[in-house]
Amino acid sequence: MQLNERQEKIIEIVKQEGPITGESVAQLLDMTRAALRPDLAFLTQIGLLEARPRVGYYYKGEQNAYRIYGKLEELSVSDYHSEPVVVTEDTSVYDAIVNMFVQDVGTIFVVDKDNCLEGISSRKDMLKIAIGKADINQLPIGVIMTRMPNIVVAEEQETLWSAAKKMIEHEIDGLPVVKTLADNRLEVIGRVTKTNITKAFVDLGKEE
Ligand code: ADP
């Protein structure tokens, strides 16, 4: 974890002067209290500083600060992923939509006869087609899906944090969890979504 220059200065001040009010830290840094607020909030959140009402900030130490990072390292996709919902390429868009509703998922995976990943289709992919002129009873999902190799995947042993980062970077709601076979095809064994990440986040809070 890298602190920025200002955060390092705040730590030094609080180490020497603490307990010290946010107002006084701001004065020493020649800044306003408001401008300092995000840094103080961050340093408190990660546990380097603690804020006591009417007393001010004091230094809590490194050990505490790294605890949350240690926990994040421990959360793995294998502990949080859900069952995948899959269809084959020749399934009609209509049936895929019904499947999505019945199984209550936002993304459906398209697989071959060996359960290996061929494509993915999201709620909005379906919505786009459904509001157009196409006959969704006739149109196969294979025509509208996002295809391999342009699919972002996760592996079971990957950290949940790494999966979450992929979702944010690629602006997607979920990833198929896959196992790479000897012939390099990706067998679908699960799905990890923003909901799984939210659950892990809530669990982290419970433990704290
Ligand atoms: P929505 O489109 O319903 O908001 P997403 O944000 O997950 O859902 O999907 C955005 C687009 O990215 C869609 O076109 C979808 O087919 C595609 N997509 C969804 N998940 C993945 C993934 N894991 N890898 C690559 N593309 C994906």
This entry's quaternary arrangement is single chain
Runs with pLDDT <50, length 5+?
A: none
Task: Provide the CATH architecture of the largest domain.
Answer: Roll
| Name of the CATH class of the largest domain | Alpha Beta
Q: Strand-and-helix sequence, N→C?
A: HHHEEHHEHEEHHEEHEEH
Model description:
There is one protein chain. The chain has 208 residues and is α/β, with parallel strands linked by helices. The chain has 2 domains: 5-61, Winged helix-like DNA-binding domain superfamily/Winged helix DNA-binding domain (Arc Repressor Mutant, subunit A), CATH 1.10.10; 77-203, CBS-domain (Roll), CATH 3.10.580.10. It has 10 helices and 9 strands. The strands form 3 sheets. It has a 4-stranded mixed β-sheet with strand order 3-4-5-6. Strands 7-8-9 form a 3-stranded mixed β-sheet. α6 (93-103) packs across α7. The radius of gyration is 24 Å and the shape is elongated. The site of adenosine-5'-diphosphate has 17 residues, from β5, α7 and β8.
Fold topology:
Layout (H helix, E strand, L loop, with lengths): L4 H13 L4 H7 L4 H13 L3 E4 L3 E4 L2 H13 L2 H4 L5 E3 L4 H11 L3 E5 L5 E6 H8 L10 H4 L1 E2 L6 E2 L4 H11 L3 E7 L5 E8 H14 L1
Parallel strand pairs: 3-4, 7-8
Antiparallel strand pairs: 1-2, 4-5, 5-6, 8-9
The chain binds adenosine-5'-diphosphate.
In brief:
With about 210 residues, the chain is α/β, with parallel strands linked by helices. The chain has helices at about 5-15, 20-30, 35-45, 60-75, 75-80, 95-105, 125-130, 140-145, 160-170, 195-205, and strands spanning about 50, 55-60, 85-90, 105-110, 115-120, 145, 155, 175-180, 185-195.
